[in-house]
């Protein structure tokens, strides 16, 4: 496991550790102080996209959401997110993601991050 390098601090730092990473896929642990809302889980997924960075750039902006589906409400504060880096175009990256509580899928969707 490797801790993510993020500019976020508690209580809005949700992405914790890189559990698994390959060239275009990653799995990251998420931690919350309370049962997370849909928005918190999306933010955690967006923060997790830092797993694909080289550690030199610490900033980015969530600029687009698409196909967001809340399939089940969480019951725990420790979750995981699986990410696929679908496309990169200059400073923009398009991701698909799935948030899990154990083996159960809670949220799925896509987002775009612009790195600064």
Range of strand content: over 45%
Strand order of the largest sheet: 1-2-3-5-6-7-4
- The helix/strand order is EEEHEEEE
Distance between the termini: 26 Å
What structural class should be given to the helix and strand makeup? Answer: mainly beta
Shape assignment: globular
- Computed over alpha carbons, the radius of gyration is 13 Å
The beta-strand count equals 7
Question: Which stretches are low in confidence, meaning pLDDT under 50 for 5 or more residues running?
Answer: none
- What about the largest sheet? 7 strands, antiparallel
Helix content: under 10%
Query: What is the mean pLDDT?
Result: 92
Number of DSSP helices?
1
Element layout with pairings:
Blueprint (H helix, E strand, L loop, with lengths): L1 E2 L11 E7 L3 E7 L6 H11 L11 E11 L7 E12 L2 E10 L2 E12 L1
Antiparallel strand pairs: 1-2, 2-3, 3-5, 4-7, 5-6, 6-7
Question: What report would you give on this structure?
Answer:
This protein is mostly beta strands and 116 residues long. 9% of the residues lie in helices and 53% in strands. It is built from one helix and seven strands. The protein has a seven-stranded antiparallel sheet with strand order 1-2-3-5-6-7-4. The longest helix is centred in the middle third of the chain and has 11 residues, at 38-48. The termini are far apart. The model has no long low-confidence stretch (mean pLDDT 92).
Question: Characteristics of this structure?
Answer:
116 residues; mainly beta; 7-stranded antiparallel β-sheet; 7 strands; globular
